[in-house]
Structures are given as C-alpha cells and as structure tokens.
Amino acid sequence: MSEYTFDHDSGSLALDFSNTSEWHASEKPSEHLHNFADLVDWGEEFLLLPAHEARRLRQSASEQPEQAAQSYEHAIQLREALFAIFSSRYRGRPIPEPALTLLNEMVRRAMAHLQLVPVGGELNWKWAPEVEGVNLILWPVARAAAELLTSEKSGRVRECDDDRGCGWLFIDQSKNRSRRWCSMESCGNRAKARRHYARRESPEGIRAHSSS
User: Fold this and answer.
1) Options 3.40.50.150, 3.40.50.720, 3.40.50.2300, 1.10.3300.10; which CATH number does 13-169 get?
2) Angle, CA of 23, 29 and 33, to the nearest 5°
C-alpha cells in the first residue's frame, strides 16, 4: 500500500479523485498516482475495491504490465478531464469538449452495467456481477462526477483560490458560500499573511506602524 494518505475531504468522490494531483492548476503538478499500484491503493482506500479484488489486480499487473499501464493511463485521462470540467465551470470558462466527451463515454458504459437490487426493503443501484478490475474504480468516479454536475451542489464546487495554482477542488458547504481555500492551515494562512504584509507595506500601514 502507498504511504501517502489520500484526501477524502472534498465532499465528492469525483473531486477526491481529481485531487490526487496536488498543485493541479500550476505548471508543475505533484502526482500521487504514480502507477497502477497507486491507483489500486486509491480504489481500496476509498472502499471501491474489496480486498480480494485489489490483491487480484496487483497480481495481474505483475503478469500483464502493459495492460496495467494502459489502465493507469486511462485513469489519468479521466482525472484530467474531471479537473478540466470542474475547474472550467468554476472559472466561468467553456467546458473543454474532449473532456466532456471522455466523461460521457465512461458514464454511458458505467450506466449500462448498473442494476437495481433490493436492500433492506428498498431498491438500490449495484454493479452487475461481471463488473471487475479498474472499472470498479473509474465507473463510480465517472458516475459521481455526472451526478454532481447535474445536482444543486454543482454551483457550490470551488477551486482553491491560491495564486500559485493549488487547484484543489471541493464542495463549499459553508452557510454563506464564502469558502475560498483548500484549508486555512495551508493556502488560507498564506493568503492571510500576504494580506497582512501588504497592509503593513502600504503608505497607510507604514504610517500607522511608525506611530505605534
């Protein structure tokens, strides 16, 4: 298992997947899904893969490395499409057509393999028995993205406003919809410190500081 602890705090499985790349909006993103094994780790940590399926995927990756590499590249393509879609919506830019096409194709495949199953007297969606492998990771992510994009929560999706290109996506669940940062402990504190410095360096701030 990867030593890195993946982020679970965005409010959406789709956004959590996008956030596996830190500084996503910068020129030098920091990758946390380095290979197929990391992808499997992520799926297991987010309870998309049962332990036995995760073990099977790790074993098959060692036996079929080319196929594992292709699955990994497909996952990264989906992740980058999700970031492009949600970031563009937040920034008020047109959604890139290739990104939306990729998501739509995956959503169509995913929905074709869902079925209604009685659970506790109610009907719930469940994947068909033949669904396995990385589809157990990517299809739920794609479905979560589609559900978020078509829900009332879509207007609450934010991207961290850090000017260095943090790129962390999250659902703003504050009452007044005023959240701007991935967290106050990181980008928020930096912005607060910059504002404080700017006030002190302004002519008014310098005069006030000198007279104190």
Assistant:
1) 1.10.3300.10
2) 105
How is the chain split into domains, by residue range? Answer: 13-169, 181-212
Q: How far apart are CA 153 and CA 3, in angstroms?
A: 32
Among candidate residues 192, 187, 189, the one with its CA nearest the CA of residue 167 = 187
pLDDT digits (tens, 9 = 90+) for 16-47: 999 999 999 999 999 999 999 999 999 999 99
How many other CB atoms sit within 10 Å of the CB of residue 70? 13
Letter string b/e over residues 150-162, b meaning 16 or more CB atoms within 10 A of that residue's CB: eeeeeebbbbbeb
Cα 149 → chain centroid: 13
Contacts of 76 (CB under 8 A, 6+ apart): 33
125-158 confidence digits (pLDDT tens) = 999 999 999 999 999 999 999 999 999 999 999 9
